[in-house]
């Protein structure tokens, strides 16, 4: 069995520190969030730097920090030269634990706190510990307090509805909104199958870069839709979405940071903030779903084919009231020369890879999603960074592929010839320092 190994240098003998690498990536994402408005030239440079240098920032692992304008400009330069990996701090030898809430914990704490606004935060925190939802060594009271304060959930009052003002960007691909909505249910083979529509919409032109019905609300569907949207309609400066799990996943954050996209999220329990994508979903229900009642579809592929045809022939070519009677496609094409396009569509595959860390066993194997993989023997006993999708599993170091893992075939391994020593048992024992007896 052949295992592909890059000619790049192998990891150091000490291997990866799983916690350290996770922290480095979170810090890089924080730094990218600071420089993204400068990168996209959407703010006044001097005013923005003055504002950010005067603020206290809550930084993963480090807590509250302030940064000088010079430091922020250094991050900007590093990103332009080295990409996302340039924002990662140098590896540390300490093994301090990350004291923050995971995405799943944040969702749970927000939902639970909304039901218990009458409860003092100190009591609320104690209950989280008693129920085993958080551990005091990993998530401190101050972390919970700051998180709830940011969400406006400290007091007993119900959070106020935020003031809204209508807005629209003047430039195509300045901002895309995205979301998922429950689609029509299909009857296939005597069974009822649920569908979900994942879509992106350009804030300026109301054009839909890409949308697709998928069988589940998992990230794989979002990955397919976003890759097609980028290939077909270019790269936006910002993507605006809600706090759904797939939109807050680290894969989504890494992908946006790698492509120079600023990822923005609405406040919790505030779906109305994404008015344009919600309005597009309502249009689909009233103008497309009704067509399905008169002429039902029998498969997911047929549903998508009919939807894409309707999108291009009806939705994109229908005069829009918010566009002064112009068509979405007309507005988009009027600025097509200013769009930043994807140079290499195949490169997007690596951008959307899933990520994980594993400890390689002494037999050079590790398990991933209930499958057993093997790697070159030099990685045995080390912690490694993995990036993978349905096409394969790759080992990474410093943002570069160093090896490819292959799934273990017990049948093939049973027939692999092992090299045996030509020395007799006594000679081998004596060579290893034995007495030969």
Automatic annotation (TrEMBL):
GO BP, sorted A to Z: DNA integration
Alphabetized GO MF terms: nucleic acid binding
Pfam families the record matches: Mu-transpos_C, rve
Integrase catalytic domain residues: 158-336
PROSITE patterns hit by this protein: INTEGRASE
PANTHER family for this protein: TRANSPOSASE, TRANSPOSASE RV3428C-RELATED
Protein name: Transposase
Annotated source species: Desulfoscipio gibsoniae DSM 7213
Phylogenetic placement of the source organism: Bacteria, Bacillati, Bacillota, Clostridia, Eubacteriales
